[in-house]
Design goal:
By secondary structure, this protein is mainly alpha-helical. The protein is built from four helices and two strands, in the order ββαααα. It folds into two domains: 72 residues, Winged helix-like DNA-binding domain superfamily/Winged helix DNA-binding domain (Arc Repressor Mutant, subunit A), CATH 1.10.10; 39 residues. α1 packs across α2, α1 crosses α3 and α2 crosses α3. It is rod-shaped. It starts with 7 loop residues before the first strand and ends with a helix.
Length: 111
């Protein structure tokens, strides 16, 4: 059983620090290199560390996407996409406000 020092309980789920995630991913990559195969490496490391297999599998997949050998959106690209979507939403909101103001002031000038 792991202590609360290594992980924090949040709403019944485990939260691992970025360093813990990176360490686990490095262990998977090292084991793959040692064994010459990727079969069973995630399961083995997850059990050794007491982490969930699917969580570790996602972290490894994201690390591979970030490094380039795996298809997918890198963390940097994902953050940029979120930023652009937020900016787009804000600009649409501003545009809508300006259009309403133009209609309001246009009606006032006509009257």
């Amino acid at each position: 059983m792991e202590s609360m020092d290594t992980q924090t309980r949040v709403a019944g789920s485990r939260r691992y620090s970025d360093e813990q995630k990176k360490h686990a991913v490095r262990m998977v990559f090292a084991l793959r290199d040692d064994l010459g195969t990727s079969v069973g490496t995630v399961t083995r490391v997850a059990r050794q560390l007491g982490y969930g297999e699917e969580s570790l599998r996602r972290w490894v997949a994201q690390a591979e996407a970030d490094a380039g050998p795996r298809a997918g959106v890198s963390t940097v690209e994902s953050e940029e996409l979120k930023r652009l979507r937020r900016q787009n939403r804000d600009l649409r909101r501003v545009n809508e406000i300006l259009q309403r103001a133009a209609v309001f002031f246009g009606a006032e000038l006509d009257g």
